[in-house]
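Chain A, query sequence.
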Amino acid sequence: MRQVAVLVQNHLRAIMRDRVLYAVLGVALAMILLVPALSSFSMRQVQELAVTLSLSTVSGVLLVVTLLLGASSIWRDIERRYTTSVLTLPISRAAFLLSKFTSIAFFLVLCTIVLGCGSAVVILIAANSYPSDIPLHWGNITVVLAGDIFKYLLLAAFALLLSSVSTSFYLPFFGTLIIYFCGSASQEVFEYVSAEFGQGMSPIAAKVVTVAYYLLPNLSAFDFQVEAVYGLPISFEGVSFAFLYALVYTGILLGLAVFAFGRRELP
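Chain A, predicted structure.
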């Protein structure tokens, strides 16, 4: 465990030195600062629009950070021969890969806290400027941010799995991006196929959609944004299922990544 902790610290230092991530976070904070002005264009739903814009900005930034870190971390270390020097020490490949994931997880949580605090400030400004009939539900907003963390941790595990078998940056980056779009839409597509509107589809196509639905991560399970915007109740069962789903799915992906990385030939 001490070796993993030291590796996590080293990986976090490397992440903190990445100027691209600072640029992404700087743009994100600038976008969040614009939320009060942009939400004022909605004459009746200023608070609701401020919550929507803030949470969407946080989610979009976490997606970019996940793609950049998950797709480039192992590939960059292999290109720079960092893995060769580190793995000559009494450090297993599993510990190396899990330390990578842990450092990404810490950074995602840190980004969520910083951007979440910024979002809270601008939401308060917008809400006080144009009071709404719907009270702010900070608990729901916190659940949305927590759901984003688990969703992007799952995606980061997917990116690490692709990075453990790929020799380039592009497969993990675009592969994870495709998984994100497919996983975000899989629930709606499955419901469409399962309803009467899908009766006209061929049985083979319907079967393919069903198999893809169960194999791909269902990222809509982590989406509680509507409940946060309109102050709707969030069921404890829904939140518990989403977090348990993320833990199990992420664990499976990390197990596959460790298996693949352990059998990979490194330069």
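The mean pLDDT is 87. The CA atoms of residues 115 and 220 lie 22 Å apart.
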